[in-house]
Amino acid sequence: MMNIVVVDSGLGGLNVLNECKKLLPNVNFVYIADKQNAPYGNKSKRKLLKIAFNLVDYIISKYNPKIIVIACNTMTAVTIKFLREKYKNINFVGTEPAIKPALKKYNKKEILLFATKNTNKYYKNIRKIQIKNLPKIIDENINNLNIINPTLKKHFCKKKYKNIKAIVLGCTHYIYLKENLKLIFGEKIEFFDNTYGVANRVKYIYETIKFDC
Q1: pLDDT of 69-87, one tens digit each?
Q2: Does 171 qualify as catalytic in the annotation?
Q3: Which stretches of the chain score pLDDT less than 50?
Q4: According to the CATH classification, is domain 99-192 in 3.40.50.1860?
Q5: 72 catalytic, yes or no?
Q6: How many C-beta atoms lie closer than 10 Å to residue 89's C-beta?
């Protein structure tokens, strides 16, 4: 049976994994949470490339997958090109912020990209916000996310964000914070994430590989 490996720095990638399972319920998925190297958001490009290289080498040696899903916006932004060039026999599916769908419905002034430092710097001409080490904080408090509310209020409760109508969740961890963010922006705030898009891409590649076999 073909293995599909989904990898992230922690629990955020489970949101991607769940969408993949909905579209491919009979496929064998392996999930890897690289907590040893978490968080990725503030690490240098050189460090992230080294982490990605070691991680993928381990995954290949242990699981021999045809598809590896990088369920992390930061790792995708910094390393996906390197990985595709280095491992040409592996199909890599990355995770990128769902900015395009958001811009189809709202103008730039109404959208806020909520991502890590390393992800944010790859996207220009859009309003951005970042909170240092937040993915790790989410992992450590996954069963009590309300503890993060004071931190969110400190960063989001500002006059410049009062007209925001949509938040692009540019980190798979941040999907867990939808209810928390509604306390600040209200129930009408719309969220955009790319989990379904990633899962749909995985499904397409998987079915193409199966057909080729």
Answers
A1: 999 999 999 999 999 999 9
A2: yes
A3: 213
A4: yes
A5: yes
A6: 6
